[in-house]
Design goal:
It is a single chain. By secondary structure, this protein is of the alpha+beta class. Helix content is about 35%, strand content about 25%. The chain is built from 4 helices and 10 strands, in the order αβαββββββαβαββ. Strands 1-8 form a two-stranded antiparallel sheet. Helix 2 crosses helix 3.
Amino acid sequence: MTSYLKIIPALLILAACGPMSIYYRPGVSVSRMQNDTTNCQVTALKDAPVSTQIRQRPPIFYPGYPICDGSGNCYRTPGYWADGGVYTVDTNLDLRNRVVDMCMANKGYQPVSIPACPEGVKGKVPTQVTTQLPTLTQNSCVIRYNDNQWQIVN
């Protein structure tokens, strides 16, 4: 369990380095976009509820291998079967994501991926959490803060 606790901060740091994917409509407040996103997710969950299925991978056969002694006497170890493993899948996940995308498109949003700002940009711009979605340019990037807030820099 403690090894998982060590991995979580590393994953959070890596997530902050990658692009940020959001639904985007220029001029809309961030709180409105987040509210619309949540409403669409709730609607999608009603229209395409979680449908968890338990599945099993096929077993794997590991054949035996030959063992020989110095006088040339050989025998083969017995092979064995290993469990392929059990996993779960939500068969409605893709449909639910499409329903959210359609709902947000009907509200005028489009999905965008904004790259993380280069390391030097954060120190050059004043810290100001984005409260209204600006018009994006080719140079737009995002700075993420520790409290799930972010700043889009043009």
